[in-house]
Design brief:
iron ion binding; 2 strands; Cyt_P450_sf; globular; Cytochrome p450; Cytochrome_P450_monoxygenase; 57% helix; mainly alpha; Cytochrome P450; monooxygenase activity
Length: 317
């Protein structure tokens, strides 16, 4: 008897295609099978989805040694490395969480809002006036710039430009639907084999080439910062270089690299998409949008998300 909950019996290919519209597909599965259901996508084992806040909270509070979430996630984001919080479990996961937490604590990032506001203002000045435009791309640009300056701490203009382009390539390539259509064994080989990087038709090639180029920049930056021994650094990279575990051990270059990319993976698309949806919701709520207009001192920018061409009723005036 299967321990998995009920779910769609459609072929994995069809279920994967239906994930092009995940919100409506998940809603349909929930209506038919209840708050917990099973699904099967190409390239992955059967997956169980929970759709209530209570069940999600229970999963997040489960003992990390028992659910092996890291081992399961490793197949999704292999370029994050072996030391990522996303791909670890048990004692290694707890060690890295303790090492990262101080760098992301409220007191450590208290000086960030001013620079974040400056970065946002720089991008907002490029927004067109008087016509709809895709907001998500701008939210992604703002989020990436914040990551480059406050997380990676890159200051060199040339390296900033190169890393900016590479990280966008890596983010887009790693989310390509073609990756998920690859058979699991072929994908596992392609993501580990140097030979596979020479085969341009493989969906993994672009991801792994971008990852290798990003590594070259990050390891050079980590080495440079170690030589400087700047104990007063306020960016996340600088704080990770100073971090020590309970035994007084520092993080290796590879550990720091993996966690920097983990922060990118955790924060880039999620933050950009969340901000875009926030604006989309505001555009549909005149009362709330008008309040934002007053809070933002009469901002005069018209913006739309990709999925809406509505004029933001209050804050666009």
């Amino acid at each position: 008897m299967s321990l998995l909950p009920p779910g769609s019996r459609q072929p994995a290919l069809l279920q994967t295609v239906r994930m092009r519209d995940p919100v409506h597909y998940f809603a349909a599965l929930r209506r038919r099978y209840g708050p917990v259901f099973r699904m099967k996508l190409i390239g992955f084992p059967p997956q169980v989805v929970v759709s209530t806040a209570e069940l999600a909270a229970e999963i997040y509070s489960t003992d990390g040694d028992g659910n092996r979430a890291g081992a399961l996630r490793a197949g999704y984001v292999p370029w994050l490395g072996d030391y990522s919080l996303f791909t670890n479990d048990g004692e290694p996961w707890w060690r890295h969480r303790k090492l990262l937490s101080p760098a992301l604590h409220g007191r450590s990032i208290a000086s960030y809002p001013e620079l974040i506001a400056e970065i946002a203002a720089e991008d907002i000045r490029t927004w067109p006036l008087g016509r709809p435009f895709a907001l998500q791309e701008h939210m992604q640009a703002i989020t990436l710039e914040i990551t480059l300056r406050l997380v990676f701490g890159i200051r060199d203009v040339t390296q900033l430009a190169r890393l900016r382009a590479l990280l966008l390539t890596l983010s887009k390539a790693s989310g390509s639907p073609l990756l998920f259509l690859m058979p699991a064994r072929l994908r596992a080989w392609a993501e580990k084999s140097p030979l596979a990087m020479r085969i341009p038709v493989l969906p993994t090639t672009r991801t792994m080439r971008a990852s290798a180029a990003v590594d070259e920049i990050l390891f050079a930056e980590i080495a440079r910062r170690r030589d400087e021994e700047d104990s007063g650094a306020t960016d996340v990279l600088g704080r990770l270089l100073q971090a020590r575990d309970d035994q007084g051990r520092s993080m290796s270059d590879q550990e720091i690299r993996d966690e920097l990319l983990t922060l990118l993976e955790a924060g880039l698309e999620t933050t950009a998409t969340g901000l875009s949806w926030a604006f989309e919701r505001l555009m549909r709520s005149p009362a709330y949008c008008g309040g934002c207009g007053r809070s933002w001192s009469g901002a005069r920018t018209t913006a739309t998300s990709k999925r809406s061409s509505r004029r933001c009723c209050g804050c666009a005036r």
